[in-house]
Structure formats: C-alpha cells, structure tokens
Amino acid sequence: MKIRTTACVVAVCLSFLGTPVVAHHSFGAEYDVEKPITVKGVITKIDWSNPHSHLYLDAKEANGAIKSWKIEGYPPNVLARTGFRKDVTLKVGDTITIYAWLARSGAALAHGRELTLSDGKKLYFGPPAGTGEGGALVP
Predict the structure, then answer these.
(1) Does residue 19 form part of some domain?
(2) What is the pLDDT of residue 132?
(3) Which of 12, 43, 74, 111 would staple 78 via disulfide (CB 3.0–4.6 Å)?
(4) Does some domain include residue 132?
(5) What is the gyration radius of the CA atoms in the chain, in angstroms?
(6) Total of domains in the chain
(7) Dihedral angle sign, alpha carbons of residues 26, 113, 99, 43
(8) CB atoms < 10 A from the CB of 51, how many?
(9) Are 30 and 103 in contact (CB under 8 A)?
(10) What is the pLDDT of residues 105-135, one digit of tens each?
(11) How many CB atoms are located within 10 Å of the residue 45 CB?
C-alpha cells in the first residue's frame, strides 16, 4: 500500500512539471507612480494575451524622432467585460492618447490607465496605479 501511495504522490508531482508558470508582478515593482506620462501615437500592434494585454504605439517626439512604446493594460477578459471588442474598439493604424505610468527602468514601457480614442471617447485600458481596481468608462 505504501508503494502505491508513493507512486501516486510522485505522479501528481510530475504532472506539475508540464504546467507553465506565469509570473505576475506588482505595479510598484515595475512602474513608478511618481512618473505619470501621456503618450499620443499610432497603434502598431495589439496583443490580447494574459496576464496583461499590450498596445504598441509609435509616437512622434518633440525632435521629430519616432519612439516605439509598449503599454500594459487589463487582461483580455476584463477588456471584453468593460466594453472593448477585439479588432473593433482598437485597430492597428488608429491614433490614440493614453495616460500611463512610466516603467522604473526608463524604457519605453508604461502601465496604461486612461485611453482616449480619436473621436474623443475615453476608456480605461488598465487599473489605477497599484490597486488593480477600476471601471471601464471614465466618469
């Protein structure tokens, strides 16, 4: 009986080896609440994946150079529940403005919050700094 129990425990443990581990980070570990930014740019790619969706933007800097940004937001299921429709609400080529917080690394990476579409409609793309909470529409 002891061999059978041991075999079952080993089998369960081995089953976890094939399970992918997805790390999740806190807001404060990667982003700086003291460094809010607003980026206006053209969407070059939309990544609807877990645990966070990402928008990729090309934004023109003051000197005329193009800077490519990666903006992190809610996971796809939250975006869908809050009114986003994949390939409808946002499309590659759309110009948007997004309020976000800059990554601590200083890279062109930010945690997005309020997204403004070219028609002026405002939506939340991500939660407020550090809380993981927030609604879909800007009041």
Answers:
(1) no
(2) 47
(3) 74
(4) no
(5) 20
(6) 1
(7) positive
(8) 12
(9) yes
(10) 989 999 999 999 999 999 999 888 765 444 4
(11) 12
Cα distances (angstroms) measured from residue 52 to each of 15, 16, 24, 69, 72: 26, 23, 9, 15, 6
Residue 15's pLDDT band (boundaries 50, 70, 90)? very low
Contact 57, 42 (CB under 8 A): yes
User: Which residues span the domain enclosing 104?
Assistant: 24-124
Structure tokens at 36: 């809010």
Whether residue 139 lies inside any domain: the answer is: no
- Asked, for residue 130, whether it belongs to a domain, the answer is no
Contact 35, 27 (CB under 8 A): no
CATH number of the structural domain spanning residue 64: 2.40.50.140
Residue that is written with structure tokens 């089998």 in the block:
11
Q: Provide the 3-class DSSP secondary structure of residue 125.
A: coil
Quote the pTM value: 0.74
